Amino acid sequence: MSLPLYLDYGATTPLDPAVAEAMAPWGVAGFGNPHSAHAWGYRARAAVEAARAEVAGLINAAPETIAFTSGATESNNWALKGLLTAPGQSRRRIVTLATEHSSVLETADYLASIGALLTIVPVRGDGLVDQGDLARALGEDVAIVSVMAVNNEIGVAQDLAAIGRLAHGVGAVFHVDAAQGFGKLPIDVEAAGIDLMSITAHKCHGPKGVGALYRRPFTRITPLLHGGGQEDGRSGTLPTALIAGLGTAARIAGERMADDHAHALALRDALLAGLSVPHRVNGCLDRRWPGNLSLSFPGVAVPLIQRLPGLAISAGSACAAVTGRASHVLTALGLSEAEAKASLRLGFGRFTTLAEIHAAAAQINAVVAAHLAEFA
Ligand SMILES: *Cc1c(COP(=O)(O)O)cnc(C)c1O
Fold first, then answer.
1. 74, 138, 141, 321: most buried, per Cβ within 10 A?
2. CATH fold of 17-252, please?
3. CATH superfamily of this structure's domain 5-12+256-374
């Protein structure tokens, strides 16, 4: 059986063949421990440091501010737990948005269960936070404001610079979960006033299982993983091949950012133009990564996804697919549980063709039209 058409870039993106090529030397031949003080180690270490420079360069940061991790889940956990439990931390409140990723919301819930205070700010129907709502949630007890760069379910991009100014206005640390923004939209940690930023490789054509946490100098966070202290307190032997993959993915993303964006935008517009059935885009259309399109279909309240076996897509996030719950992001926008479960998230980009988008639109048109006819 042939595999369904892959339009689930929000869950993970295809590994770029050039990234795979850059990883290969650090498998069998270059297996040395990058922390070893001999030639095997030095060579691996050089590859790690080259990758660190690539990642840092893409976000206008200095290489030493980048610590490698196992991905954005770990980076989000580290940012929140590390900051709230840092020695001398006197502030106890976490402020975040209703549409954040579970790795931020669950971490915040856990911290609240052991004494932190938590404010979850709602978003407007277009997916953006109201700056006034956010400002009212902020005070001198706020340790951290955590807001994602690009939403993994609806693609909406918050105004990071404006949020950073609000956070700094009360002396809070500004954390950004940039799992879906890194390598796709320009993010400058200086211009946006970002103090901590979570990065992952596999959402921008890199390998799974590697990411990074950017830490502005003098931002005090305690380690999650105690031990040898390799990554400035984040212990564990670094995976050279994965890190080389992240570095190469970052370099390619930097070189191709404008082209990738234009391609995703053209695909998005073709998809919307190709839909002949009534539909609604979830989240605003102007502030977003165009390669992520969440759609609802008025009059349709059944999980459409089950009727589209030819498409590898999801209703909400990949995590929501595991639990079977309605997407908390879509309900935060005001959709009912049934509407959320009947929504479709399509993710596409660098390796998606126009022909694939046309095929997807045709399949969606057929399924939605059949459903509407059935219940007419
Ligand atoms: C995928 C994703 C994560 C988790 O990243 P992993 O590297 O898979 O742990 C966190 N936040 C957002 C917004 C994501 O899309």
1. 74
2. Aspartate Aminotransferase; domain 2 (3.40.640)
3. Aspartate Aminotransferase, domain 1 (3.90.1150.10)
Count of residues in the chain: 376
Q: How confident is the model at residue 230 (pLDDT cuts 50, 70, 90)?
A: confident
Q: What is the average per-residue pLDDT within 318-331? A: 76
Predicted local distance difference test score (pLDDT) of residue 324:
72
- Catalytically active residues are 319
Q: Which residues of 260-292 are buried (b: 16+ CB within 10 A; e: fewer)?
A: bbebbeebbeebeebbebebebbbbeebbbbbb
Q: Which of 73, 99, 327 for a ligand 1 pocket mutation test, highest count of atoms within 8 Å of Cβ? A: 73
Asked if the domains at 5-12+256-374 and 17-252 fall in one CATH topology, the answer is no
What confidence tier does 166 reach under pLDDT thresholds 50, 70, 90? Answer: very high
pTM for this predicted structure: 0.97
Domain boundaries, the chain: 5-12+256-374, 17-252
Instruction: Report the separation in Å between the CA atom of 357 and the middle of ligand 1, taken as the mean of its atom positions.
Output: 25
Distance (angstroms) between ligand 1 centre and the Cα of 101 equals 7
Q: For the chain, what is the radius of gyration of the CA atoms?
A: 21
Residue 321 has pLDDT above 80, yes or no: no
Q: Whose CA is nearest to atom 15 of ligand 1?
A: 152
Segment 106-113 shows an average pLDDT of 98
Residues having CB closer than 6 A to ligand 1 are 71-73, 101, 103, 148, 152, 177, 179-180, 200, 203, 211
Q: 362 alpha carbon to ligand 1 midpoint, in Å?
A: 30
Q: Provide CB contacts within 8 A for 112, sequence distance 6+.
A: 94, 118
**Shortest-distance atom of ligand 1 to CA 211:** 7
